[in-house]
Structure to design on (376 residues):
């Protein structure tokens, strides 16, 4: 028989005890993710050493050994100095506005303000009056910006696009390319999946042609070859040619990205939409396309980021964007030094990184917000 004197029955809950420190907390995380094995530990140490070395190199050049105050590049020519920030201070207005007349720079500044005032509420889901916001961003803001920048009306001094430059041109090319290429890409993607042979063939030829040539060739052709096919006496603005070339080029890549999203939609979604009696465009606009675009947000934003960085190629057609203005400023004999170029390119890298990182983080936030299909 069992000795009942050895039995034990708990009549109250045991006291709560914290888990061992080897399983929770920062030490456990480091042991699991970074030092789980000898090989992981070696990779971690090497990675940390490389990151620290790179970060220190940048900080040493940009902060520790940097020249912060000078009237010319003489102080930046000394041996062992770092970034020449007085050069950036002297040229920052050219970096932003290009060769836009100094007394008229309030006009592009107002354009920047209008752009931010219409884009920021549009990017915030909970801000009301979205339809009016879209109209303001896609219709009102471009028209007002065009007349502000070009002038010629309401007493504004005319300013040719050849004087535009810097960050102003970078944003114009990238924003116009993004806004125009997305609807074009959607139409090309739908056309490539069309059951009409002629429509499908035209879309396939368009997509494959523009994807088969580099952007630098597109810009060169738009700037130098397009005028040869225009009627005598008719000319198209050089910046407008670049905008058209960039928009069509990007739309070809977006078309394939969007087509991948359309192919990922289950057939039942099409059948359900047709069972409800929806027409083709209603089915695409209300049922299929919103789901397809949600699936390919990473690919779309990747194309937008690539477009933003590729705006530097407009320099090939003598349009001075941000990088073009930095390169042009390096020929100033007052500021010539071994570190002037490095400083200018560091500024360009930081600005491009800020914009691209912002687009990347916003797209990730939108992905999490729209991932309703994964919620339980």
């Amino acid at each position: 028989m069992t000795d009942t004197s050895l039995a034990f029955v708990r009549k109250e809950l045991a006291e709560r005890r914290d888990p061992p420190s080897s399983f929770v907390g920062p030490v456990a995380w480091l042991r699991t993710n970074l030092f789980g094995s000898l090989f992981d530990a070696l990779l971690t140490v090497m990675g940390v050493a490389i990151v620290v070395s790179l970060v220190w190199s940048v900080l040493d050049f940009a902060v520790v050994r940097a020249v912060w105050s000078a009237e010319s590049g003489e102080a930046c020519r000394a041996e062992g100095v770092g970034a020449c920030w007085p050069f950036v201070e002297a040229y920052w207005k050219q970096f932003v506005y290009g060769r836009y007349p100094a007394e008229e720079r309030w006009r592009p500044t107002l354009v920047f303000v209008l752009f931010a005032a219409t884009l920021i509420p549009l990017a915030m889901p909970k801000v009301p009056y979205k339809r009016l916001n879209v109209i303001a961003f896609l219709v009102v803001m471009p028209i007002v910006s065009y007349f502000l920048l070009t002038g010629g009306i309401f007493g504004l001094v005319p300013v040719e696009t050849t004087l535009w430059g810097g960050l102003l041109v970078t944003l114009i090319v990238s924003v116009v390319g993004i806004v125009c290429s997305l609807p074009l890409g959607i139409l090309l993607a739908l056309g490539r999946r069309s059951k009409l042979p002629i429509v499908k063939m035209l879309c396939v030829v368009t997509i494959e042609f523009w994807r088969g040539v580099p952007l630098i060739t597109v810009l060169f052709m738009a700037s130098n070859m397009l005028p040869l096919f225009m009627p005598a006496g008719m000319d198209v603005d050089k910046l407008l040619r670049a905008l058209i070339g960039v928009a069509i080029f990007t739309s070809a890549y977006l078309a394939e990205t969007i087509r991948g999203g359309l192919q990922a939609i289950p057939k039942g979604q099409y059948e359900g939409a047709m069972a409800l009696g929806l027409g083709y465009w209603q089915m695409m606009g209300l049922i299929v396309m919103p789901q397809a675009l949600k699936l390919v947000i990473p690919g779309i934003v990747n194309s937008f980021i690539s477009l933003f960085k590729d705006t530097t190629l407009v320099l090939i057609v003598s349009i001075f964007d941000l990088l073009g203005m930095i390169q042009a400023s390096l020929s100033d004999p007052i500021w010539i030094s071994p570190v002037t170029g490095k400083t200018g390119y560091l500024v360009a890298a930081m600005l491009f990184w800020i914009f691209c990182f912002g687009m990347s983080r916003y797209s990730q936030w939108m992905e999490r917000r729209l991932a309703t299909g994964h919620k339980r």
Summary: The two ends are 53 Å apart (CA to CA). The chain has a mean pLDDT of 86. The CA atoms of residues 238 and 355 lie 25 Å apart. The first helix runs from residue 25 to 33.
